[in-house]
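Project standup — Tuesday

K.O.: blocked on the structure for the chain from last sprint. Re-posting the sequence here as requested.
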Amino acid sequence: MNYQIDSGATAWVLVSTALVLFMTPGLAFFYGGMVRSKNVLGMLMQNIFAMGLITILWVGVGFSLAFGGTNGWFGNLDFAFLKDINTVGELPGYTGAFALVIPPILFVAYQMMFAVITPALITGATADRLKFSAYAILIGVWAILVYPTVAHWVFSPNGWLFKRGALDFAGGAVVHINAGAAALAVILILKPRKGWPREAMPPHNLPFTVMGTGILWFGWFGFNAGSALAANGLAAQAVVNTHVAAAAAMLSWLLVEKLKAGHATTLGAVSGAVAGLVAITPCAGFVSASSAMLIGLLAGSVCYLCLTLKSRFGFDDSLDVIAVHLVGGLLGSILLGLFSDVSINSLGADGLFNGGGASLLGKQALASIVVFAFSFVVTYLIATIINKTMGLRVNAEQELVGLDQSQHAETAYQA
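H.V.: unblocked you, prediction finished:
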């Protein structure tokens, strides 16, 4: 080993790894409170199951495909089943200014938690009607074909989008655009829930959703600030930016909701906060706190206004994954091209508003479009094959009974 380990950085990323893992059960409660009571265990199970399946796939091949090799387009299997991970001199591309100061095995663990939560995000769009066995196959294949490829392009220093200068501090493209595009592809095949949009399908337990939001917000400090991979000023900046953007987005969502719908709702408050957290994710280590506030304000209002898209286009995105994660991820990635500031992070680039011209804005647009297109097309093909073989959707009777009983033979609440 020829890398130097920083004990403070290692301690921080160990904590951040746990924080990001905690986000997946937080997501389960966030989504679980928004579905009807007959589907709450189905939602919790889909999210918790990702913690098991994706972990094994990541150790087996996912990490190696994402961070192995020097090819700009694809990783390799040099680190399959974490072979040689403890003895490798340095991970491919992580040299010079990008050299790691944490053990490579910890980097594996930290990135694993991103790989776990990303396909879990899809479940909010497909709620109430996705067959559990089909879901298991879908995210398993996706975690091998789609996620590691995008992570290699954008996160790996050897990735072609990384080398072109596209920036993504903690996953605006890799996590949110990627998952949002996949969610859109799946629901176009899955079709709307029975009775949508005629029947009201209100959340059954908003306190669950609020609790889930709190867990997500808490975990997001590990998600964003942990991506500094060091316990330093950049991590501190990312903590402040993350919190400020979430707060600003909550307020702007509630203001627009009050003006448009007449009420500021609890669901609106938590949705706005998550929209801000999504939008600041690619920007967290590249922008100032004042820029983070503006990004949050824009995210809350824009994501709220995009809620009407699903009814306009006739797709049933059950829990608004597209309006929050896809739109929020796209918005944050593009706004980074405006607000990025090298005085915050010397490894970044100045955006349009900081004298850098339109160069970074173009690179951010390219990365956003490419990731969206790749994820959408490949996910659509995967979902189509599953649908034509084993079927994606539960039958009408199972949907009426609910996923808890039909898929898991369980009931969350006793009559």
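K.O.: great, moving the ticket to review. The radius of gyration is 20 Å. The domain at 7-408 is CATH 1.10.3430.10 (Ammonium transporter fold).
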